[in-house]
Amino acid sequence: MVPERGFVVIVTRLRLRDFRSYAAADVAFGEGLTVLHGRNGAGKTNLLEALYFGCTGRSCRTSNEREVVRFGATAARVEVDGHDPDGPHALSVGFQPGEAKRMRVDGAPVERMADAPARPLVSVFLPDRLELVKGAPALRRAHVDQVVAALWPARADTRRAYSAALAQRNALLQRIRAGRANRASLPAWDAELARHGVALRDDRARAVELLRERFATLAGELGLAGTAGARFRPRTRAATPEAFAAELAERVDGDLERGFTGHGPHRDDLVLERDGRDLRAYGSQGEQRLALLALLIAEREALAEARGRPPLLLLDDVMSELDPDRRERLAERIARHGQSVVTTTDLAHVPGASSGDVTRVAVGEGTVLQEAAA
Ligand SMILES: Nc1ncnc2c1ncn2[C@@H]1O[C@H](COP(=O)(O)OP(=O)(O)OP(=O)(O)O)[C@@H](O)[C@H]1O
């Protein structure tokens, strides 16, 4: 099978200018594991963030992206080199607060990195960013949809089609409320929404089904006490688009009162639980962290199986949280597939870090960065 472009891109190099604590830096990555090591505050997470920024055009750490521009500088720039079976690829993101980002893939300007085929998929774990577990369902829905798109690229359009149909139906509800449209025009949109809605829900259910067992096993291995579960909670269980359209029709009075559609896959959720209790509501920070880590590794393994190569995995400071046994298990899982970058304050916390096939990068205080040969 010919691997799809945009999925097997291996990152070889990261260059940055005026990004966070770095005036300039140049880092080379290994094809397997790269360990960034250095003291607290040295700038390890900044490098992970820069790599994510270069691959996706967004920060994984903050929604206020001004923060990524180095104090006193006016603009930040990140360049990522990589390769796939088609040859080398180059991505760049230039960011000046107040202006549109300037992003290029293989020299050509792009509006959104996500649409660029020659871009590595990235999965990131930051211990203090637990929104995926404890935040609103919309975040988990979007995440599951990303997994769907990564597993089955041809299915990525279903979410867009559903969102477009939903926006149209909501606009129509508003017009009917305002007396500018007739209720008789709703069934046509209900049918459209139901067609994409059932497809979207089924894709999500299939994706979660692929993750379910892996998630439970991994959560146990990484030390989450009790029985972990990942469960898709769809809003509608209608077996066919016609049945879902009938559910919409039944609820139309409520929808007209609210002015928007209250029922459908835009209300689905992914529930992560421990001993049957939702970790979002009842999990401790430590439990939520382990669940997130287990979810990301489960996705990585499902993707490796389905697509031959998993996303680039970025793990910030996870080892210090785990006991030696669990570190070993995590390291073994990571080493099994693909490319990953791990940060640590202590190389001894990363099992196998001294092995010849691991790339080690020493991160110095502030802006200094030295690279040790693999
Ligand atoms: N825009 C910025 N300009 C300059 N320095 C910044 C900027 N944003 C953050 N920093 C500095 O970056 C440093 C933190 O770097 P980073 O978070 O990468 O550390 P770290 O090596 O991951 O540390 P830890 O091991 O504690 O997580 C802090 O000293 C912070 O002041």
Q: Which fold name is given in CATH as the topology of the largest domain?
A: Rossmann fold
Number of domains: 2
User: Could you say which structural class the secondary elements and strand pairing correspond to?
Assistant: alpha/beta
Task: Tell how many strands the DSSP assignment holds.
Answer: 15
Output the number of helix runs: 10
What portion of the residues fall into strands of 2 or more residues? Answer: 15-25%
Largest sheet: 6 strands, antiparallel
Q: Considering the protein shown, what is the CATH homologous superfamily of the largest domain?
A: P-loop containing nucleotide triphosphate hydrolases
Name of the top-level CATH class of the largest domain: Alpha Beta
- Uncertain regions spanning at least 5 consecutive residues: 1-6
Q: From the alpha-carbon coordinates, what is the Rg to the nearest angstrom?
A: 22 Å
State the end-to-end CA separation: 31 Å
What sequence of helices (H) and strands (E) makes up the elements? EEEHEEEEEHHHHEHHEEHHEHEEE
Strand order of the largest sheet: 2-1-4-5-6-7
Bound molecules: adenosine-5'-triphosphate
Shape annotation: globular
Q: Architecture of the largest domain in CATH?
A: 3-Layer(aba) Sandwich
Rounded average pLDDT: 92
Helix content: 25-40%
